[in-house]
Amino acid sequence: MIYLDNAATTRLDPQAAEYMTALLSEEYGNPSSAHAMGRSAKSIVESARRSAADLFRCRENEIFFTSGATEANNWAILGSAMQYRSDHRRKMGHIVSTAIEHHSVLRALEAFEREGGSYTLVESDSRGYIRPEAIKKAMRRDTFLVSVISVNNEIGTIQPVGEIGELAHERGCLFHTDAVQAAGHIPVSLGSGCVDLFSVSAHKMYGPKGVGLLYIRDGVKILPLLYGGMQERGRRAGTENVISIAGFGTALESARMNMGDAIKRVSQMADKLIELLYTIPGVEINGSGLEANEEIFDLFNTRHPGIISATIEGVNAEAMVIALDQRGVCASAGAACATGVSEPSHVIRALGKTEEEAKNTIRFSIGRYNRMEEIEEAFEIIKECVQQIRQ
Amino acid sequence: MVGMSGGVDSSVAAWLLKEQGYNVIGITMHIWQDEASDKIAAENGCCGLSAVEDARRVSEIIGIPHYVMDFRGEFREQVIDYFTDEYIHGRTPNPCIACNRYVKWGALLKRAGQLGAGYIATGHYAGVDRLANGRYSVRRSESKKDQTYALYNLTQEQLEHTLMPLGGYEKPAVRELAKKAGLPVSDKRDSQEICFIPDHDHASFIEKERGKDAAVPGNFVTSDGKVLGRHKGIIHYTIGQRRGLNLPMGQHIYVTGIRPETNEVVLGYGDEVFSEKLRADGLNLMAVSDADFPVGSSRRLWGKIRYRHEGEWCSVTRTGEDSLEAVFERPVRAVTPGQAAVFYDGDHIFAGGTII
User: Fold this and answer.
1) Chain B residues in contact with A388 (beta carbon < 8 A)
2) B214-272: CATH number
3) Distances (CA, A) of A228 to A219, A221, A322
């Protein structure tokens, strides 16, 4: 099995697995308890929080563990919406976001609209980037939140979130970014203050599933989604998912220690695969070969090192995914929804591709546990599948 | 490659093929989605999320890989647009026939070829045979649920690559097999006739698709032109219909004709809804080659003019490259333009076409 679908989920860091296994039967304490078992569990959770603060260069009291990025995104959007309404005599206000967001943002925005709010989605430009001036144009007097994904999960373009964040602040809006594909993969510094809310999922960065976090900048007020106990400083009730948070902590730590090396290795493998893919006639790599555009980035670099989006002429990506699966290579066609159906990608269409080309677009996403030999082996299989489907 | 709807028939078809030693891949075709899709799923249609989940569970139990493929584009173009166009033009379409030829077989078979699968298989109650003359034809099932009518338009090439393992079974036996194999769908209800219109209200569906202008009120008339009243728009009517006319007539009165050019619906009494003759175009020869049934030749065959029609003996004459005429030995009720006329020679489909 060659796993080239790291943007969907990643393998659990072996150190995290080991740590979690060790804790699983021993550390059953409730972090809220006053006794030794409770204190021990509490210290595990707090240590993970420190790891998050270290990696994202923020304060520990700005990290709130959640059940994952879906909860974090919902909380950022609906929590800030409820806060706005409560502060503005029941007015609902307006949110600016983009057409290239994850479903956990888009569906939350739809729910917000059903309750009487309104929102505007900004389209990406023909290279897969959100232009800050387009965000500016979409903002209204009653806009209270701007939410822009950090790294597009289909073609890996890193959005100019720093600039957009500043722009939002100039207009007195909060700025949220869904950083699922960025966190743990590329350097992030929240210290500059241009981001108010920042969502992370553990399982996209070699942590366990079922845990994530929302960074809430010190002083930013959003209402909770979950009420109950006083966990997470009263802002996210529910007994902490101690073991998963522990594994998340290890993954965060490991990302901090190994990021430079991982970026280098992953980029080398991605460059190799891109080079090999270009030897197949009729292959186009989306979002690659872009010039680093300095006007765009301050907080981040230009492109996710491991995400490769390839449009292969005459090769339907759905068929390709199945053909690859039959030969032990895991990849995906666009962004998969719960049914396993892939939507002809909005993002790919925005690059000026036809619907046919969008349907012929497959994503390979490389992670730090891939090896160069696997890339070469996978390429031979890719070539075979392309031939079979084209004939 | 088995098309799996999550229902009992296609689940058992997949299981049977696996038992017979085939290397089976399960595919659920994602063909239609709108606000009503939850409702469709709840009513065991073939498009919803729960259908996908069921197919996935069944595949896991059988031990075959399962995938979902997106055919919404093909389905919209070949089935939904055709369906609405036909009604607007005063005909009564059969969407399953179009779906079979262009989506279930056309698009899926292409995908099967790309993946190196030699056959596509379905859970239809029908068989596929290679006849002595080398032609492939669909064989009627013993089952009461015979589904061959909707398969008349498949091409020779499509049939050559088709397996229908349920051909020799009755529905209760298939349910038994599902139970025996431990498939969690053995007691699922049968799907309804038109999967994308779960509430059976085709007129509202067409209005939703094409706007209110799709139904322009006009006159009910007799065959000699007498105006009897107002109708709600021709898309609401089909030949032979008696209910929903809302006319205070003494005798039973039926729709006997639809005139899209004048936006009139023709009504008549009982005997006027019967006819002896029909003409059809879009001819598809199945059990016989072009050369063996040349223009001008005739055959005595058993003809069906709609899915639920019992059938009647008739003399079928090929009147052109693409057309035929059938004269029935006893008059048949409600010959309906847009529906298929399918002719059987013994147990096999001989040919078929679209009634004009």
Assistant:
1) 114-116
2) 2.30.30.280
3) 22, 18, 45
